[in-house]
Amino acid sequence: MSEPTGLRARKKERTRDAIGDTAVSLFLERGFDRVSVNDIAAAAEISKPTLFRYFPTKEDLVLHRFADHQGEAARVVRGRRSGVEPVTALHQHFRAGLDRYDPVTGLNDHPEVVAFHRLVFTTPSLAARLTRYQLEDEEALADALGEGLQARLRAAQVLAVQRVLARTNWQKIADGRTAHDVHPEAVADADQAFSRLW
After folding, report:
1. What's 156's DSSP letter?
2. Which residues lie below 8 Å from residue 184, measured CB to CB, with a gap of 6+?
3. Angle at the Cα of 134 (from 131 to 137), degrees rounded to 5?
């Protein structure tokens, strides 16, 4: 008897999460460059080929945590209510993320989240891979905004603003401030930055 597709997919997702969590724990403990793929496979109790079926590169073992946000800006634009301008929808979405202390906004002071961001921002190969993800997001957002150079420029502006805001928030927290303390500044910065778009 074959396993139902939904159950199989959930098991695959749980396995993927377990491998990724194991890898991130090792990276946070030892540093990205000091952990091999063999170390991760051994700690996760899987073979190296199995690991690569779930994560094509070592960098993907870390950056899979951004996967939920991949294409998010494009989804916000496509899913906005009638009569709401794209930049307004994106601004509201970012503000809602700040209010939830969503790690993607940089406004989260959980020690593991701060350490994770430090790992990503200070490891050149991870930062380079993250840039590739951001370029893919930019293309998706440009498609959602329309066609041509104007749509591409607008997409680049929005994602640059979000990236700078998130990095600024993270840096304040990495410097020892709490997310709660930084929140009013983060909101004011977001309001000011988004008001200057388009």
Report:
1. H
2. none
3. 160
The predicted structure's pLDDT at residue 3? 59
For residue 126, give the amino acid letter: L
Tokens 């020690």 correspond to 111
The pTM of the full predicted model, rounded to 2 decimals, is 0.85
Instruction: Determine the Cα–Cα distance for residues 65 and 140; give it in Å rounded to an integer.
Output: 19
- Asked if 55 and 61 touch (Cβ cutoff 8 Å), the reply is yes
Tokens of residue 191, six digits? 């309001």
Angle ∠(177,182,186) on CA atoms, nearest 5: 145
Q: pLDDT tens digit string along 15-72?
A: 999 999 999 999 999 999 999 999 999 999 999 999 999 999 999 999 888 877 889 9
